[in-house]
Design goal:
mainly alpha, 87 residues, elongated, 4 helices
Length: 87
């Protein structure tokens, strides 16, 4: 049996303090570990982040005068891929 401790990445000191005070509350994977190697638009679609048309993102303000809303294609063009900083 391996006794290697798992490493964790924290965004700030507060997050680390919270984990150190109650590590049993944080036994699951974080978002970077869970979606490592996945492209953001795939994750958004998987988590029901699109409207009934299957491509327009939900929960966004109208930021342009023409009323055009962001779609999964807009997110794909950003080429944002989740990476686990400790992998």
């Amino acid at each position: 049996m391996s006794t290697t401790a798992k490493k964790h990445a924290f965004s700030d000191e507060w997050g680390e303090r919270m984990w150190l005070s109650e590590p049993e509350r944080y036994e699951c994977q974080n978002v970077l570990e869970q979606y490592a190697g996945r492209e953001l638009s795939e994750v958004i679609a998987e988590l029901w982040g699109v409207r009934s048309d299957g491509k327009t993102l939900i929960g966004q303000p109208h930021v342009t005068k023409d009323g055009k809303l962001w779609t999964l294609d807009d997110i794909k063009r950003a080429n944002c891929v989740f990476r686990d900083p400790l992998a």
